Amino acid sequence: MKSMKRKMEGLKALGVRQYHVASVLCQRAKVAMSHFEPNEYIRYDLLEKNIDIVRKRLNRPLTLSEKIVYGHLDDPAKQEIERGKTYLRLRPDRVAMQDATAQMAMLQFISSGLPKVAVPSTIHCDHLIEAQLGGEKDLRRAKDINQEVYNFLATAGAKYGVGFWRPGSGIIHQIILENYAYPGVLLIGTDSHTPNGGGLGGICIGVGGADAVDVMAGIPWELKCPKVIGVKLTGSLSGWTSPKDVILKVAGILTVKGGTGAIVEYHGPGVDSISCTGMATICNMGAEIGATTSVFPYNHRMKKYLSKTGREDIAKLADEYKDHLVPDPGCHYDQLIEINLNELKPHINGPFTPDLAHPVAEVGTVAEKEGWPLDIRVGLIGSCTNSSYEDMGRSAAVAKQALAHGLKCKSQFTITPGSEQIRATIERDGYAQILREVGGIVLANACGPCIGQWDRKDIKKGEKNTIVTSYNRNFTGRNDANPETHAFVTSPEIVTALAIAGTLKFNPETDFLTGKDGKKFKLEAPDADELPRAEFDPGQDTYQHPPKDSSGQRVDVSPTSQRLQLLEPFDKWDGKDLEDLQILIKVKGKCTTDHISAAGPWLKFRGHLDNISNNLLIGAINIENGKANSVRNAVTQEFGPVPDTARYYKKHGIRWVVIGDENYGEGSSREHAALEPRHLGGRAIITKSFARIHETNLKKQGLLPLTFADPADYNKIHPVDKLTIQGLKDFAPGKPLKCIIKHPNGTQETILLNHTFNETQIEWFRAGSALNRMKELQQQ
User: Where would one find coiled-coil regions in this protein (predicted)?
Assistant: First the structure.
C-alpha cells in the first residue's frame, strides 16, 4: 500500500488525475458516454466552461476544431495557445486500441505499475484475422492461431479496467462510431484511422501506444496546437458521386502530407447532403493526407444516426449544447478549400499512393498510357472506411441490376462487413445474399486485406496485376505483399461496378454492359437507405465488461512465448554527444510505416519486440543500390538484410542512424516503427520531414527525430559516412543541433538539424523513453 501511495504521489507531479473522476464530477447532465459505461458521463458542461474561458482570452470566433480541442485543455486559463506553435496539454475523454497495437500499449501500461486505467478505454480485436476462405472459417482459424494473444488482451483488459471486444465483433472504428463516438468527444486511438469518429462530430486522433498509456495513466496528453484547414462544401451529392469522392478529391489537392499538423474541418451547406456514415468515411481517409484529424459539425444527420444506434439521449443533450458543436460565424481557417458537390465526379486514386487522383471517366486512358494493367483481378469492398449499411446497400443496388441482366462479376469480389451489427443487419435485409449471388465472398468482420491480412492465391508474387478497393491506403505491397499489385481506392459502388465489368476502362456513368441475352444496358446510379428502416440487428454479443473486482485476475506472459514479450526499459542518455554514428540506411523516396515495420504476416509478432524487429525497414529502398532490404555492413563491407545489419551493429556496440526523405513515417500509427530502431541500437532518424504520429512515436521511445535545416543537405550525406550530433548537453526547444559529416576520405562538413522537442519531450530523451520518465516521477 505504501508503494502504491508513493506511485500516486509521484504521478501528481505529472498532473495525473484520479481514476474515473468523470463519474464523480458530473452530476448534472446524467447522460452516459455509452451503454457499456453507465457511470461515465458526457461533460458538455465542462466543455462549455472551458470554451468560454478560451473565447474570452482569444477574443475571436472559434472554429469547431478549436472548440473541442480547447474545450479539453487541462488548464484553459493559463495554457499558451498558438496554432502550429505551442504544445497543448489535453484531457481526452477516452482511449480505444486495436489488438495489433493494444499488445504493446498494454505491455507498457503493465510496466507503469498502475492499478487501473484513468479514463474509459477499450480493446478491439480486428487486425489478426486473415482473409482466406470466408467469414466463419477465417474467424475460427484466427481464434485458434491467436489464442495466446487474445487471452492476454482479455485478461489484461479485465485486470486494468479496459473493455474488451472479442474477435468477430468488427473493425475498431465502426464499433466506436456505433457505440462510443459522440459530438464534442476528444478520443485518442492507437490506429491512424481513428479520425473516423469525426463523422459524429468528435475530435478523434490516431496516436501510438505510448500516448495511449499516458492518457490511461491520467497524465495530460500533449499535442502541438493544430492549424485548421477549412473545406467548404456547397451543392449536394447525387448520382454515382459518393462521400468517398470528397476525400479522394481532397487527397488529390493536399497530397499525402498537405494536412500535416492540421485538423481538416468540413463546413458549408453541402454538409447536409452527406449521411453520418458518409462523413465518417471522409474523416477516416483524412489520415492519408497527414491530417491530425478531420471533423464535421453536428447536424440532423448525426442526430438521426445517434437515435438509430440507441443513443437518442445523447442526441437530445447535443441539441442543448449545439452552439458549441458547430463553428462560430466568421471563424478563421489557415487554409480554405471549396468543393461544389454538384460538380464533383466519381474518383479513383492510385496506384501505389492514395493522393494520385483520377476521375473514374479518365483512369482507363491514363492506365493505358502508363502501362498499368487494365484487367481487374479482384474488387474488394468494406474496410473501416466504407463498410456502413449505406455502403453495402449502394453496392447491392449495383449488383442487383447486373443480376437482373444475367451478369456476375468478371473479377473476384470480396465483402468485409464493418461490424457484427452491420453483418447481421445486411444478412437480415438481403444485401449480403445479393452480393454473394453476384459472385462475392463475405469475409469476417475485420480489417482483412486492407491491412495485408489476405492469403491471396490467384497470383504469384511479382506478377503485375490490378485490384480496386474501397479501402483507404494503397501503398506498394500493402494489401497482398506483392510489389507489382496496382491497387486503386474508390467508393464501394464504383468497385462493384468495375468488378462486374472487369476493367479499369469501364465508366458506369456513360458505358454500357452486355446482358446474358446479348442486349446492352447501362447501370443506373445506385440508391439506398442510409440507415435500416427497422432497427439494427446487433447480432452476437461480443463484448466483455471489465469486472468490478479484478484483484484476483492474473495476466501471464510466458518467458518462452514467441508472440508476447515483457518489455525491458531502454537505456538512459549518457549525457554526451552522439559520436561517430554509422548510417544503417539512407532511404530513397517514400518510406511509410509499412516500409519501416511491415504488417501482414508480421502482425503475429506485434506483442514481441525482439521478433518483430526482424522486419525493420525491410521495405525501404536503399539509395546506395536501389534495392529493398539490402544494406552495406560498414565493418564487413558485405551487403545483407537491414535487421541483420542492425543486430550486428548492436552486438558490437556501434550506434547508428537512419537518413530519410520527405514525410518519413506516413501511414499507420504503429509505434513498432519507432520501437524497433530503438531496440536494435538506433539513436536518431534524420529526414527532410516527418509524418506527425511517427515523429511523436520516435520521441516517446527516446530516439531523436531530426530534420535538415536545409533539405538539400540530404544530398551531402552518403551511406559510407559517419555522423556526430553535437549540442545535446544544451538541448533546448527551438535550438538546432549540429551534425558533423565525416567522409571516408577524411574531409568533414557541418550542417544544422532542426527538431520540434519541447521541455517535456527532452526529458523523455534524457530518461531513455517517456515510460522511463513516468517511472522516475513515480519514484520521486
Answer: none
